[in-house]
Write a structure and sequence with these properties.
The structure holds two protein chains of two kinds. By secondary structure, chain A is an all-alpha fold. Chain A is built from six helices and one strand; from the N terminus they run βαααααα. Chain A starts with a strand and ends with a helix. Chain B is built from eight helices and one strand. The radius of gyration of chain B is 18 Å and the shape is elongated. Classes of the chains: A mainly alpha, B mainly alpha.
Chain lengths: 171, 182
């Protein structure tokens, strides 16, 4: 009797077990990795997070009462938020100015509104627990995503326009 | 291997450590099993997969959903293992001439009494180059084009190594079963 031995290896059975502590070791290695590449507005995010970290650190160090700790943080976040919203608004206007497609504009409007809804939900969580770095990160991420999609679509429109121009010129 | 969900992938693209650890947990054992086939020492295999995972996360933007994430990762891990082997001075001799013998490459029919374990032991007894090509072809399921890319050797060389590896395997396993046909 013959068998095609390639079939024997089609499934991977009995996986090997890793040495103990491999997870902690890997987590350590992950932490030493440089952070992801910077996008145009990520300095804002870095600034926001470091300001918050400093505030938290400072307050813990000085052992100040809770209310004093929270308010500067909210103020910082609001400042970052205002800066972002200003940029987003500007990008939006640019986008509407160059986009000639109503459906596209409507689609992006919807996208931004969805993001805004998420943002409002996260804001509530932030007000409840202003020290939660994950919530703060998600807020900043949300703003950054809005900015990014607006910039991306504009870039895309520009490329399309260039192509069209080129096409018209060749005719 | 199962498909990684998009949410997790997106989080990894953003460099979210929790998501990265989750991916690591999902695939580490399978990848470790693969790495152990190429590196004899488990400690080396562990280091190789961890290094591979880090590379995968740094280059996650290059991942295209046309292959499963597991397949993409496996390729990175295998390359990582080969790098380790290369450091240990494994050289492929590209000048090795392929003999003009017509052998049916598709014929991998062996005596059905032979078990998977016995085949794995026999593969370990092959010489380094044949061993690698046989593993990549037989166990990992890569074709000659892929093997030639992974090992950076011509397709012809890959075929030659595989053919010789197979012949040697047949000899090794024949000793055991005293099979006269091969």
């Amino acid at each position: 009797m013959k068998q095609d031995i390639r079939d024997l290896f089609k499934t991977e059975d009995d996986l090997k077990a890793l040495p103990e502590n491999h997870r902690t070791e890997f987590l350590e290695k992950l932490k030493t990795q440089p952070k992801k590449k910077f996008t145009s507005f990520s300095w804002l995010k870095i600034a926001a997070i470091s300001v918050i970290a400093l505030t938290v650190g400072y307050s813990i160090f000085m052992n100040e009462p809770e209310p004093v700790l929270v308010s500067p943080m909210i103020a910082q976040i609001e400042a970052v938020e205002a800066e972002y919203l200003k940029n987003i608004e500007a990008e939006w206007e640019n986008f509407v100015a160059i986009a000639e497609d109503e459906i596209l504009v409507a689609r992006f409007k919807k996208k931004l509104e969805d993001l805004d809804k998420d943002y409002k939900e996260n804001s509530i969580r932030f007000k409840e627990d202003a020290n939660n770095l994950l919530v703060i990160e998600s807020l900043v991420d949300n703003l950054q995503t809005r900015l990014q999609i607006l910039q991306d679509i504009q870039k895309h429109i520009k490329i399309l326009n260039q192509k069209n121009e080129h096409y018209e010129n060749t005719i | 291997m199962h498909q990684l969900d998009n949410y997790l992938l997106e989080a990894c693209k953003k460099g979210n450590r929790i998501a990265q650890m989750q991916v690591y947990d999902t695939y580490s054992r399978a990848m470790f099993t693969v790495a152990c086939r190429y590196l004899n020492n488990e400690e080396d295999a562990k280091d190789a997969i961890q290094e591979g995972f880090l590379k995968a996360f740094t280059n996650i933007e290059n991942y295209k959903p046309k292959a499963t994430f597991g397949a993409w990762l496996k390729r990175i891990i295998i390359n990582q293992c080969l790098d380790v082997l290369k450091k240990k001075q494994l050289k492929f001799n590209d000048l090795e001439v392929s003999e003009l013998k017509i052998v049916n490459e598709e014929d991998w029919n062996f005596d059905s009494r032979i078990t998977k374990q016995e085949i794995l032991y026999a593969i370990e007894r092959l010489n380094e180059k044949h061993k690698l090509v046989v593993k990549l072809y037989l166990i990992e399921g890569y074709d000659h084009k892929e093997i030639s890319e992974i090992l950076d050797i011509p397709i012809k060389t890959s075929r030659t190594h595989l053919r010789r590896g197979k012949l040697k395997l047949q000899v090794l396993l024949k000793e055991k079963y005293n099979e006269t046909r091969y």
